[in-house]
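Q: Sequence in, structure out?
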Amino acid sequence: MYNLIERAVKIASIAHKGQKRKDDNIPYIFHPVSVGFILLKEGYDDKVVAAGILHDVLEDTDYSKKKMEKEVGRDVVRLVEWVTHNSSLPWQKKKEEYLQQLKKAPVKAKAIAAADKIHNLKSFLTAYKMEGESLWKKFHGGKEKKIWFHEEAYKMLKYKWNHHLLVEYKKLIKQVKKLK
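A: Exactly. Output:
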């Protein structure tokens, strides 16, 4: 029998099959597994690590919430829901709603969101070294909107939560802001 983290990797692998990252064009599964590794390294429990691995499944795939809940449990799915964007909304509204969710989110969900954002920005900075300015075109709103979103996400994560992951996140935001 698979343990919880193994089940999460299996689900994410199936759900994200064929998807690629827009910044570096590698198989998408690399991102959620990396988020899980960040959380594992930080000492979070299996439910948080599993939710980190599954954080984009409900948002970006047709994998059902009901099926996920049957396979990993309600606690994990609830954490995933805290960090899921409402994809039915226009981009700006979707991001604003997500930011308000982050502000109210429990600490474990904030840790998942921070790990996600840290990995996203690290991937972006690596891809920027290869692609340069053209990379901004792959993201809605370009540089201005990307920086706006991360600065606001940082503020919402920092609300009632102080963790060293936020120090790393802030440092990465500053690096992205310095890009031409």
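The radius of gyration is 16 Å.
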